Amino acid sequence: MTRLIFLGPPGAGKGTQAKTLADHRQVPHVSTGDILREALSKQTRLGIKAQSYMDKGELVPDILVQEMVQERLSQLDAKHGWILDGFPRTVKQAVFLEELLEQLDQSGERVVSLEVPDDVVVVRLLARGRKDDNEEVIRRRLEVYRAETAPLIDYYRDRQKLLTVNGNQSQEEVTDELQKIIA
Ligand code: AP5
């Protein structure tokens, strides 16, 4: 059963690798960033609420993202596995997820931490140029990552769920390393 969580700084390659693996394993790729951007483009209530946080590189409030993830993982296609990309991002979200997975009888998740130095991710993101990929917002996203999300590495290591992968190599090399480690 594929139940994987991708952790890593902005630009680490979480989306790229999560999508490849989800296609390969035929499970849903659940990206909170993508769900929020879609809500934003459709100007739903969630999208409108999330916009100011996303534009500044701040985290959207836990409660909004948690509801979104609960709804998505409760859908039928998530019963037989999923790949989470961008969630959890705070210890509070991680505790919420643990309880949710227990309720849904979907425990047994593993966590992949993609490791890439800050200077490399900044270059990658500036080259991509999404709305939140300007230098000021990227720096803020990195600060938020360090303060709020990086503590999850120890959180999952303590629970013996953590796998680490060197994300600072070609996309194909990262995919190969990943496939070996989760085989
Ligand atoms: P989100 O969309 O999750 O953004 P992020 O974490 O900043 O991650 P990115 O999508 O920028 O990077 P990535 O690691 O997925 O890398 P990618 O594969 O795209 O979140 C956006 C915002 O939504 C947040 O700031 C927040 O406001 C909100 N949000 C989302 N989830 C939330 C949550 N749980 N709680 C609260 N708020 C939340 O690759 C990046 C680039 O690098 C691409 O151009 C790619 O082609 C390239 N690349 C990838 N791999 C390689 C490689 N190996 N070598 C060279 N280039 C590569």
Automatic annotation (TrEMBL):
It holds the Pfam family ADK. InterPro entries: Adenylat/UMP-CMP_kin, Adenylat_kinase_CS, P-loop_NTPase. Pathway: Purine metabolism; AMP biosynthesis via salvage pathway; AMP from ADP: step 1/1. One of its GO terms (cellular component) is cytoplasm. The keyword Ligase does not apply. ATP binds at residues 11-16, 128, 169. It comes from the Bacteria. Coiled coil: none annotated. Its EC number is 2.7.4.3. Keywords: ATP-binding, Cytoplasm, Kinase, Nucleotide biosynthesis, Nucleotide-binding, Transferase. It catalyses: AMP + ATP = 2 ADP. Monomer. Catalyzes the reversible transfer of the terminal phosphate group between ATP and AMP. Plays an important role in cellular energy homeostasis and in adenine nucleotide metabolism. Belongs to the adenylate kinase family. Consists of three domains, a large central CORE domain and two small peripheral domains, NMPbind and LID, which undergo movements during catalysis. The LID domain closes over the site of phosphoryl transfer upon ATP binding. Assembling and dissambling the active center during each catalytic cycle provides an effective means to prevent ATP hydrolysis. This is Adenylate kinase.
